[in-house]
Design goal:
The chain has 285 residues and is mostly beta strands. 11% of the residues lie in helices and 47% in strands. The protein contains 3 helices and 26 strands. The strands form 6 sheets. A 7-stranded antiparallel sheet has the order 1-22-19-24-17-14-13, with no helix packed on it. A 7-stranded antiparallel sheet has the order 2-3-4-11-6-9-12. The protein has a 4-stranded antiparallel sheet with strand order 5-10-7-8.
Length: 285
Amino acid sequence: MSLATALYSARPGRERPNSIVHRTRGRRHGPVTRLMSPGDLGEALKPFVFLDLVDTDSKALSGFGLHPHSGIATLTHLFEGNVRYEDTTGASGLLPEGGVEWFKAGHGAWHGGGGGDSARVRAFQLWLALPRKDELGPVESIYLAPAKVARDGPARVLLGTHRAVASSLEAPSSINYLAVSLKAGESWRYQRPADHAVAWLALSKGGLTAPGRIDAGELVIFEVGDTAIDFHADRDSDFVLGSAAPHPHDLVLGYYSVHTSRESLAAGERRIEEVRIRLQREGRL
């Protein structure tokens, strides 16, 4: 039985805890640990299809040159340090600690970056599969300074809502994505919306107890349910948490793209090629 089938084969009653049904430490690739990709956990957790944890000396991030995407949105959040960014909308700069990069590639665009001037970088980059109405839509590039990121207590609301607090970014579907920092001894509760069958957490620092033990470097998936999830930090802890209504489409994969059909993938790849030719003409590739 696949993980996706196991997750959705039964819905527990309201009083049953949200237990952990899967955990992983992903695969290390140089300075990056890939915790989720479209070919593995992304199929069970869609619209969340890709998650990288970066935790490294800034010098190790020599640079992620301009590269293309289509059919997805990426969201990068830094718990520590800063990074350089640029994209084909003309934006460029330095994303600071606590900041957010939102890059909705839509019909096709390029972005890149690398280490900034901090000694260390600790961050997550997430990919979201876009719904059919948005996968070939316009590109959106937004960079939020830390003061512009909505907060509710220890939680930064990167996308969606938490209690009465809403992100300034427009979510493409019913999605919550939070970055949470707890001091040792602190507790925190997350109540996922009733339609959010998908729920997971990735811990970059510290240690938590929830319905089970969670250690730094792990991504855990919670069973389907609508009871609140309680977390307690036994050390200073930083994590991201995502929940969403399931993405109803197949994942049709390109090298840097995720679409809902072969036709939309082909359209995205045509646009990527058009932008590549322009970048080469400008001397940027």
